[in-house]
Amino acid sequence: MALKVIGAGFGRTGTLSMKAALERLGYTKCHHMVEVLGNGAQINHWDRIAEGTTPDWDAVFQGFEASVDFPSSAYWRELAAHYPDAKVILTTRSFDSWYKSASETIYAVSIAMPAWIKLVPRGKKIDGIVGRNVWQRVFHGKFEDKEYTRQIFDQHEADVKAAFPPERLLVFEPKQGWGPLCAFLGKDVPEEAFPHVNDTAEFHKNIAMLKRMQTVPYFAGTFVILAAALAFYAFH
């Protein structure tokens, strides 16, 4: 199965809403970080990619017809070359609103992770997947420097826009709804409202729990279960 849609937008540009929308339009399933962190095979794939192994993209995306969000959006060039018939969607929002959202959610989760997560093999892999595929590869370890990150964000969007002809690329804000998305993909507009997923409150709960875990010891088995559950939400 080849990818038919490639999401090039950063996490926190409405990617979970896009996942729900694309699956509603028949692209089953849509790859997203939530699909990675809850799946052992996906964790192993992306751990090897983070280490520099040449990806077998067909194996990584077996069973998926679309992709959005990190970590796949960090490899949009490679995926667009490997799947030349796939259409590309750049989800976007204003930089300042995106940076605030990312800082308070996905980045906050990453820095709140207890240091001892790396003592558990699965936890170490998850830490590496997020750290190396996202914060290092995309933001060069400088995400906290807002102006540097602004340059990365703006350059990323310019690069994506310059890489594809109009018939292959849609620049899209989920608040635009079904119309532009369905026209671009050649799909009928569903009768229901476009899905808008807001999970900020859930992030804040997980961040608070992770901070408590930094000082409270857990048995290894309990930790694996809890960390996997928390990580499942890390890139909603």
In short:
It holds the Pfam family Sulfotransfer_4. The protein is of the alpha/beta class and 236 residues long. It has twelve helices and five strands.
Mean pLDDT reading: 87
- Strand residue percentage: 5-15%
CATH level-four homologous superfamily name? P-loop containing nucleotide triphosphate hydrolases
Please report the distance between the alpha carbons of the first and last residues. 25 Å
Radius of gyration: 17 Å
Order of helices and strands: EHEHHHEHEHHHHEHHH
Helix content: 40-55%
Count of structural domains: 1
Strand order in space, largest sheet: 2-3-1-4-5
Just name the CATH architecture: 3-Layer(aba) Sandwich
Shape: globular
CATH class: Alpha Beta
Low-confidence stretches: 206-211, 217-226, 228-236
Q: Count of DSSP E strands?
A: 5
Question: Which structural class do you get from the secondary structure elements?
Answer: alpha/beta
SSE order and pairing:
Elements: E1 5-7, H1 15-24, E2 30-31, H2 33-37, H3 40-50, H4 57-60, E3 66-67, H5 76-82, E4 87-91, H6 95-104, H7 106-112, H8 121-136, H9 146-163, E5 169-172, H10 178-185, H11 200-213, H12 220-232
Parallel strand pairs: 1-3, 1-4, 2-3, 4-5
Helix pairs in contact: 3-8, 6-7, 7-11
